[in-house]
Amino acid sequence: MASTNDLKNGLVLNLEGQLWQVQEFQHVKPGKGPAFVRTTLKQIPSGKIVDKTFNAGTKVETANVDRRNMTYLYKEGDDFVFMDTDTYDQIPVGPAVVGDAAKFLLENSDATVAQHDGKVLYVELPASVELTITYTEPGLQGDRSSGGTKPATVETGAQVLVPLFIDNGEKIKVDTRDGKYLSRA
Fold first, then answer.
1. Residues of the chain with pLDDT > 90: what percent?
2. Mind giving me the DSSP string for the chain?
3. Most confident of 15-19, 46-50, 67-71
């Protein structure tokens, strides 16, 4: 059990038998009335997002989640195989659990895998990854960084919008949360 005053991003709560991950929270102390905590929660594994308000100081049940650093090894059938870097145990993770992170997973890349009671809840990638462009239209004379964007395919098969001056074979940094181009690597 924890108090709503102890909430932080990434904490997993057990509300009414379902697991919810705290995406955002805000403590509010209005001029009149008691303080409260406004939260945005994401249901695990469905991904449904809801806004919920708690009275300040209310007790909420937290789930015991084991977050481990793992290395993505390879894809076997539909499953993604991850290896625990401490124990060298390999676990298969289904595509529904990996979700959008699959677009940015490269073999031998690191990820955080969260488990609850032996069941994988979600896979979390670093904030950004470096990927090589496999195909994009060629740039034209005079293309500048302040110009428009063009679609590019990276080595994982994902589509990313990049500035006009980026060419095939270049390494770029991509934000794994929204799939946006950040910079050249």
1. 9
2. -EEGGG--TT-EEEETTEEEEEEEEEEE--SSS--EEEEEEEEETT--EEEEEEETT-EEPBP--EEEEEEEEEEETTEEEEEETTT--EEEE-HHHHGGGGGG--TTEEEEEEEETTEEEEEE--SEEEEEEEEEPPP-TT--TTS-EEEEEETTS-EEEEETT--TT-EEEEETTT--EEEE-
3. 67-71
